[in-house]
Design brief:
Polysaccharide deacetylase, alpha/beta, 7-stranded parallel sheet, 41% helix, TIM Barrel, 7 strands
Length: 256
Amino acid sequence: MLDFTLDKYIELCKTIIDSGYTSVSVRTYLEDRQNRCVVIRHDVDRKPEHAMKMAEIEKEFGINSTYYFRTTASVFKSDIIMAINNLGQEIGYHYEVLDKTKGDFEEAIKLFENELKEFRKMCDVKTICMHGNPLSKWVNKDLWNEYDFRDFGIIGEPYLSIDYEKVLYLTDTGRGWNNTRYSVKDTVDADSVYRVKYTDDVIDLLKNETLGQICISAHPERWSDNFGSWLWDMVWQNVKNVGKAGIVKYRKSFHD
C-alpha cells in the first residue's frame, strides 16, 4: 500500500483504536494529561477539504484530534471549520502573525487578537499553534517571549506547552516522519532514540505499546485519496525538500 494516502491513514487510525492508547486533542491533553495517550494534531496549511476528509475518517473510528487552521483565504473556510468542529474535533488557530507583520511585535499581537476573534465567532478556541514558514526569518512562537497567550484565554501552544522529553513527537513534515533534513521550523527540543521513516513504522510503534505518550502531527494536504493527487504531491514535495534541505544546512552552518 502506498504511504501518505487516506487508506494508510485509516490503517493508522485503526491501529490507535486497537492499541492501549487513548486518542486526545491538544486541549484535552493539556487539561487532563492522561498517562497513555496519543495526542493528534493537524496543521491545515493548505487544502482544507483534505482536513474535512480526515475528520470524517476520525469520526468513524472515534478518534479525537485538533485541527489548526491558518487565516489565509484558501484555508479559512468557515463551512469546513464548523463542520469539523461539529464532528467533535477541536479547532485551533494556526497563527503566523510575526511573518505577516515582518517581525513587528506590537502589530503582530494586535493581528493575533483580531484573527482569534474571527475564529471565536465560530467555535471555542482554547489552543493555538504557530505556522512555520521555512522561507521566513521570523519564528512565530517568539511572540510569546514578549506576551502571554493566557491573557487571551488560551491554555496552551503545542510547541511550548508539551514536554517532549516525556512525549514522543512524530511529524510528517517533508512527507516523511521526523525527517530532520527537511524540518526547518517543525522541530522540538528533544532527541529521540526512535527512528521512524514510514507510516508503517509509526504503526509498529503503536502496536508495541512501549511508549507512554505520543504526539502525532499530520498535515492533511499530504494525505491523498487518489493516485494522481498522490503522485503530484510526491513530486512537488521532493522539489520543496531540496530547498528545505538547503535552508537547514545553511542555518546549521551559521550557528556552528
